[in-house]
Description:
By secondary structure, this protein is of the alpha/beta class. Helix content is 38%, strand content 15%. The chain has 13 helices and 15 strands. Strands 1-9-8-5-4-2-3-14 form an eight-stranded mixed beta sheet, with helices on both faces. A four-stranded antiparallel beta sheet has the order 10-12-15-13. It has a three-stranded antiparallel beta sheet with strand order 7-6-11, with no helix packed on it. Pyridoxal-5'-phosphate is lined by residues 60-62, 86-87, 89-90, 138, 164, 166-167, 188, 190, 201.
Amino acid sequence: MTASSPRLYLSAPHMGSRERELLLDAFDSNWIAPLGPHVDAFEREFAAISGRQHAVAVSSGTAALHLCLRLLDVQPGDDIVTSSLTFVATANSIRYANAKPVFLDSDEETWNMDPALLAEELDRRSRQNRLPAAVMVVDVNGQCANYTRISEICETHNVPIIEDAAESLGASLNGKPAGSFGELSCFSFNGNKIITTSGGGMLVTDNEAWAKQARYLATQARDPAPHYEHSVTGYNYRMSNLLAAIGRGQLQVLADRVDRRREIFALYRETLGELPGVQFMPEPDGFHSTRWLTALTIDAGRFGADREQVRLALEEANIESRPVWKPMHMQPAFADCEMIGGKVCERLFRDGLCLPSGSSMSQADQDRVIKIVRSQCSAVTPTISA
Ligand SMILES: *Cc1c(COP(=O)(O)O)cnc(C)c1O
């Protein structure tokens, strides 16, 4: 029976009619090639909703992160302090700049960078006169890091923050939107993010010179001249006008998408939250998460099955779920990097599971997930189904 059920994805794209209209408008206007009026409009509209002066549309979130490091003039061998619990793109961007990631553990309250460890690390480095070139803070699973503390710590040491808000568009902290906390902040419109352009990213900042320089570097660093003149190495990182048109339509429904993901989270919590050993990713006071992905941890001893058994049971029913990010310091590609702490993110990886959370998911879809997860818990008496 379950084998024939359609595949339920972790976070499938969710398009509406406005996206289609705008895409066709771009198509019919023949503004297909990189740049065009939809790119300009998308940048303006995006800057407004993220509370920033400038937005630069690029080909991916990873490209946006890489540009940030260039804008800060990060040099080969520089240290960049970042979160270990993240998607690999964060760490890869640091490698593109030939800089060295220094990974930090998460805290229990936000699952993001532990401010106490950051304070210790920057104090230690300050005494040794080797402060990092930047701190790249990640907002995982739709929730901001604790910028109340992190911003203060970085200010004390005069170290710039790059905010990797790829997973947190639509979230806020004390009423301030995700993406407003870094000198430079980045978003992603990859296929599984809360809104998508199929692929794309955005860099936001209040610094006009940086925004101009980002556009310059992202278009092969072409100097003003009738011939093609280049004085530095650039990239082909700009977003196409077609994709920007889709992005403009998606941006209009962002608030609905956040509400729907939070609703999905609420139903999971209601139906699974009482099971022994289950704990959801916390949302401390002042934090407003998008619940981009519903993430929980399973204490195998109390639940009666471990995270992997639950994931495999879901897979058997054709349902995609995913372990919480495997920390970067545990990845072979980054095994040589410095790691500060690690107990928290290692446990989150061992016990953590992300459940299907796409905003286009139906209640019946979600019921399928809930039923399987409950069936794995030894405290649940199996119900005889017809
Ligand atoms: C998705 C993601 C990125 C990269 O975005 P792309 O658009 O896929 O390049 C960067 N950081 C984090 C934390 C992400 O989840």
